[in-house]
Design a protein that fits this description.
The structure is a single chain. The chain has helices at 2-24, 29-49, 56-79, 101-118, 125-149, 162-182, 189-211, and strands spanning 86-88, 95-96, 99-100, 153-155. It is mainly alpha-helical. The chain has one domain. The strands form two sheets. The protein has a two-stranded antiparallel ribbon with strand order 1-4. The chain has a two-stranded antiparallel sheet with strand order 2-3. Helix 4 crosses helix 7.
Amino acid sequence: MNTIENRFIALVSIIYGVGIAGFMIPSLHSTFLWLTPYTILASFIFAWIFHKKWEFKHMTIVSIIGIIGFFIEYAGVKTGSIFGTYTYGKTLGNGFQGVPYLIGINWAALVFFTSSILAGRIQNPYGASIVGASMMTMYDFFLEPVAIKLDFWIWKDGIVPFQNYIAWFIAAFLLQLLLQLSCKPIRNKMAGAMFLIQLSFFLILYVWIQIF
């Protein structure tokens, strides 16, 4: 299992590495933008495939987190009062009234990934939720400029408001706490790797955008 798991992690790392190169080359942008939703979804699926102990309650809570995350984004887009004023582009695929379905999966994935990394390391659910939310907010910090560049979403006046990061942390904390208080997260090497690979992906592109 470990050998297969390590091979999958290596494969996903290569795929994301190729994606970085693809986004740096303007002529390849359209191809890699088209692949983006499938890559995000595949990362989530891979993490579940290699989950050591499937529990119905755990899977249910993660699914509920995805649904809540979607409606938080829906309210955010419609009111502009949660994260700030923004609209989604076409990169993340189909959705409901301008909000991609994939964004709910992304919320579920990030909570699942980070809670899997912290499982067994921080016993206090509130402490684990604070650290998990901090990890997710750091992820969003590096994601934002890349997301704008790749037409994930567009902010009013092209500026990411500080309000966004505060709201991200609060929402992430509450969703982390829901999971922590409902069931005990289990360490998942693949989930942890997916988070670190995605974080590295956005960090590298973040630096690239700042330089070029």
